[in-house]
């Protein structure tokens, strides 16, 4: 599938200094796959991921993390394993994309078998939904497969507008 207008909406790769600054601000080391993602795509200006998610730049991720940490001061306990849904924000949740509204796509860095999984966090309700993907590599691999084959990733399948913009349809 070709979506040249969407390709122009992807930001240049983030620098290693950008990612390290995000790690310092977040107070933790980020997974290699997030380093790799930002080294190839420094964020976006248009929804390029399923559910209409727009990728954050590292600085945007930190900004969102600070906002949600301020708004949702308490959340799941650290001893609850990664991937456990529940109410409240946790400091080990790292937002990597936004739908521009109520939800962020979040990497769960709590310990456990699902460490690094991705889920939607609803800011209105302060709820972490069950994981949608085991990790960023699973999401990006699914996106690549869907774009190459026209198949689905979860409930979504890719299409393009007349102007060459990628959209994800249910």
TrEMBL record:
Residues 13-142 form the Knr4/Smi1-like domain. SMART domains: SMI1_KNR4 (SM00860). It holds the Pfam family SMI1_KNR4. Transmembrane segments: none annotated. InterPro entries: Knr4/Smi1-like_dom, Knr4/Smi1-like_sf. It comes from the Bacteria. This is SMI1 / KNR4 family (SUKH-1).
């Amino acid at each position: 599938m070709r979506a040249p207008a969407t390709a122009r909406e992807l930001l240049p790769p983030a620098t290693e200094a950008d990612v390290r600054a995000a790690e310092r601000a977040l107070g933790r080391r980020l997974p290699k796959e997030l380093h790799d993602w930002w080294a190839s795509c420094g964020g976006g200006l248009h929804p390029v991921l399923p559910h209409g998610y727009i990728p954050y730049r590292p600085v945007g991720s930190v900004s969102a993390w600070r906002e949600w940490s301020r708004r949702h001061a308490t959340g799941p306990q650290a001893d609850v394993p990664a991937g456990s849904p529940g109410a409240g924000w946790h400091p080990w949740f790292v937002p990597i994309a936004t739908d521009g509204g109520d939800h962020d796509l979040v990497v769960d860095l709590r310990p456990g078998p699902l460490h690094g999984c991705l889920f939607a966090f609803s800011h209105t309700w302060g709820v972490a939904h069950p994981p949608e993907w085991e990790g960023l590599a699973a999401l990006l691999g699914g996106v690549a497969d869907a774009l190459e084959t026209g198949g689905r990733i979860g409930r979504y399948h890719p299409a393009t507008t007349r102007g060459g913009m990628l959209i994800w349809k249910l």
